[in-house]
Amino acid sequence: MHNRLPPLGSLRAFEAAARHLSFRRAANELNVTPAAISHQVKALEEFLGIKLFRRLVRGLELTSTGEASMGKLRDGFDALATAVEMMRTHETVGTLNITVAPSLAVKWLAPRIHGFVSAYPDVDVRVAASAGMIDGKRNGANAHLGDGDEPAIEIRFGEGDHPGHRVDRLFPVSVLPMCSPRLLDGEHGLHRPEQLRHHTLLHHDSVQIDGGGANWKSWLKSAGVDGVDVSRGPHFNHAVLALDAAIDGAGVVLSYPILASADLAAKRLVAPFPLSLPMTSAYHLVCADAISDHPRVAAFRNWLFDEARKDGPGVA
Questions:
Q1: For 52-101, how does the pLDDT look when each residue is reduced to its tens digit (9 = 90+)?
Q2: Bridge partner residues of 171 (DSSP)
Q3: pTM score
């Protein structure tokens, strides 16, 4: 008895040919030529030193040895397929830890995450909002395998400089003045940028810190407007707070349309002026090189970028 197994390809060719009693039909199933099936079966017979088929004028007939081995071989391939499926399924079942910049978590990811959960019901998604995901270049990336070797990934706002990590630019970011539609009416209704001098300016600090100059001062300069005091108005440490204040009519916010997409669509916010300024910072998906191809990470990456593309052109 041989101590080593014959090539898997020859066993697969024999199993298909024995099931169909035809080299031609076996070849169609395995997407090869009939000659290749015949060659594989002949090689198997030579390896074993026995005949498995009787070649007849009108087809094939199993020998007694071929007939006796057929059932066990079929069971073996079924068991092999089951084992491979178990390995594949195991890799997509488990926990995925996602840490996100707070405003993106609230305004963009949370309303959409049900789509990923529906597509991958066996993945236990855990989302954490952290201010440490803002200005990631200074803070560095922490994406790694979490407790119990569960993958952990991050969506960071910054310049995407994270050595030793895979960094995918999720989408570029620009800033645009937005306000409640109520501010479009009245004596000082917002129709021209110079009318901003009659309204409260709302600020959020991530624009000031990471905007690469994309703040109220630079926006007003690009709009050709003088005489607006950019030092006035309340400051917020998260964009969601500034956006909510604008929705309530507290003033005009210079913020990210990507975060306000649902509010703009629902007319809770309007953009009175079309001028937007690009920022040097952007949102990036960050994960350690060691887990960049992990099935759960890859599944989330693909889903995330599909969602990002829905928000229009310019999305990476």
A1: 999 887 788 999 998 888 888 888 888 787 766 655 555 556 889 999 98
A2: 283
A3: 0.64
Determine the angle formed by the axes of helices 34-48 and 8-20, rounding to 10 degrees. 110
Residues 58-67: contacts with CB within 8 Å, 24+ apart? 59/21, 59/22, 60/17, 60/21, 60/22, 60/23, 61/21, 62/18, 62/21, 66/14, 66/18
Name residues whose C-beta falls within 8 Å of residue 56's C-beta, 6 or more positions apart in sequence. Answer: none
Model confidence pLDDT, tens digit, residues 2-37: 457 888 889 999 999 999 999 999 999 999 999 999
Sign of the alpha-carbon torsion through 233, 236, 238, 244: negative
Q: What percentage of the chain carries pLDDT values higher than 90?
A: 52
227 contact partners, CB below 8 Å, separation of at least 6: 194, 197
Helices (H) and strands (E) counted in the chain, each on its own, are 12, 10
> What tokens appear for 82 in the block?
């089951």
Find out if CATH 3.40.190.10 is the number for domain 173-279.
yes
- Supply the Cα-derived Rg of the chain in whole angstroms: 31
3-state secondary structure 170-222: EEEEEEEEEECHHHHCCCCCCCCHHHHHHCCEEEEHHHHHHCCCCCHHHHHHH
Q: How far apart are the first and last CA of the chain?
A: 59
Specify the range with the lowest mean pLDDT, choosing from 142-151, 162-171, 190-199, 286-295: 142-151
Out of 1.10.287.610, 3.40.190.10, 3.30.70.360, 3.90.850.10, select the CATH number for domain 97-172+281-309. 3.40.190.10
Q: How far apart are CA 102 and CA 132, in angstroms?
A: 9
Pairing state of beta strands 53-56 and 59-62? antiparallel
DSSP label at residue 133? G
Q: How far is CA 266 from the centre of its chain?
A: 26
Say which CATH class 8-91 falls into: mainly alpha
CA 244, CA 236: separation in Å to the nearest integer?
11
